Amino acid sequence: MSTPLIPSPAGVYDVLVLGGGVSGSIAAIAAARTGARVLLVEEHGFLGGSLTAMGVGPMMSFHNPSGEQVVRGIPDELIGRLQARGASLGHIPDTTTYCSTVTPFDSEELKIELETMLTEDGGEILFHTQLAATELADHRLAAAVICNKAGLTPLRAKIFIDATGDADLAARAGVAFTYGRTADGLAQPMTMNLKLANVDTAAVRDYARRHPEDFLWSPVGQAEGLRRLASSPRLSLAGFLGAWKAARERGEIDVPRDQVLFFETPVSGVVIVNTSRIVGLNATDPFQLSRAEMIGRRQCSQIFHFLRQHAPGFAAAVRMDTAAKVGVRETRHVAGLYQITADDIMTSRAFDDAIALGGYPIDIHAPSSETTATTRLQPSARYQIPLRSLMVERPENLLVVGRCISATHEAAAAFRVSPIAMAIGQAGGVTAAEAAQRGVNPAQVPFAAIRERLLQQGAQLPSLETSARAATA
Question: How far apart are the C-alpha atoms of 22 and 79, rounded to whole Å?
């Protein structure tokens, strides 16, 4: 016997956003600020996605390798509001030297700030709710059927935004997609993040100064890393290489990774350890995802005991928690109107419909080994994200934001990070609201109107001259 649908009392929304990670949250805020009636649907009881449920931190990076800020708008406003609450130090030097800057934040305050920003602008939030199915009519999404404690309910909207990270809404609506890399269909590994307190970061800094060879430094070099180590208010390092290798050889650790990576939060002595590595499992398969959760917790236990026993500054560390959900770097990439490629990233190709900029490198955690492959950008790089990569041919009233937009495995490894994902979300929200208010599909909204609205909301975009050159190229 089938479960009956419960009629929705809400009527038709202008914009329905599925997924309350930071990209979806910023999309909902941007749409609400444009005057749309917005509902944001999230499976957890809080917003923030990878930065809260998955325990990821800090944000990296709002800047390109030379230190030029390339992400502004609502994402940067969020950081300013967190700073005002004492919940972020803002953009500070990255002492791993992987990026020019990182942005630590308090994850609990982030949850509150995202809720506050959305509701201040008139948006609504529905927690503890998952997507169950879709209803299609005339090449459009008519409804997203959601599941929660009330049962199954169809939610109707003029424009839908898939911010699930895994393209769940798009896949259920019949949109074609690729999974992972083209060669073998493998995706970047998952990671269970671990948060520790009572870390003696002064001792860690001292050890790193005395033994810089025990840590990894990017091409800017060890000297620059040590300079940042002396000046940055919070610590980020990748290392303990010797002790980690020895512990793996003794069989104390079976984590397939060649380093220990950790980041200090705004609270001194509290660090996030981003080291576990879960390979070969598909995060869109619930059984495999369940296995990944269990493997991740076991790996984090090994990592914690290693740090207590072998890492200077961690002897008295206290385990606070592992993340509520295993961290997922990559799953589906939708087949959109334009597929972003690695060449687009590396050459900073100009687009006449650019809606976001990025400066983070191509960062691929190997799907089948312990290494991480980085393709570095030019110091002044400002690659562009075209609006077409957020759009699919059908359903005509669907937009996709976040890490699952239309891109290759390699290209997505660059823009998947939270600041750029938020900028993409802002553009998706503005486009959806403009389409709903005009009574047209997103692809029919004049790009000049989208660009103007994004600039009004403070977004960082390429100059009109750059866009004009792209249009005639």
Answer: 12
Beta-carbon count within 10 A of 13 CB: 21
Looking at residue 172, what is its pLDDT? 98
Domain boundary among 288, 322, 356: 322
- Mark whether 344 and 314 lie in a shared domain: no
Residues 300 and 229: their CA atoms lie apart, in Å, by 26
Is the residue at 431 inside a domain? yes
pLDDT at residue 1, as a whole number:
45
Say which amino acid occupies 81.
Answer: R
Contact 460, 70 (CB under 8 A): yes
| Pairwise pLDDT comparison (377 vs 366), residue with the higher score | 377
The predicted model gives 296-311 an average pLDDT of 98
**Residue 443, domain member (yes or no):** yes
Range of the domain at 230: 194-322
| pTM of the predicted model as reported, rounded to 2 decimal places | 0.96
Instruction: Say if 6 falls within a structural domain.
Output: no
Please report where in the chains the tokens 């931190």 appear, as a residue.
57
Rg (CA), the chain: 22
- CATH number of the domain enclosing 435: 3.50.50.60
- What pLDDT sits at residue 372? 86
Residue 7 phi/psi, 5° resolution? -60, 140
Q: How far is the C-alpha of 399 from the C-alpha of 392, rounded, in Å?
A: 7
- Judgement on whether residues 48 and 114 belong to the same structural domain of the protein: yes
Please tell me the distance from the alpha carbon of residue 82 to that of residue 117, in angstroms, as a whole number.
Answer: 11
In a domain, 42, yes or no: yes
Are 103 and 90 in contact by the 8 Å Cβ rule? The answer is yes
Angle at 367 between CA 331 and CA 24, to 5 degrees: 25
Question: pLDDT > 90: what percent of the chain?
Answer: 92
Q: What are 166-187's pLDDT values in tens digits?
A: 999 999 999 999 999 998 999 9
Phi-psi region of 90 (alpha: psi -120 to 50; beta: other; left: phi over 0): left
Task: Give the separation between CA 446 and CA 442, rounded to whole angstroms.
Answer: 9
Pair (71, 106) in one structural domain? yes
Number of folded domains that form the chain: 2
What is the rounded distance in angstroms from the CA atom of residue 84 to the CA atom of residue 69?
Answer: 20
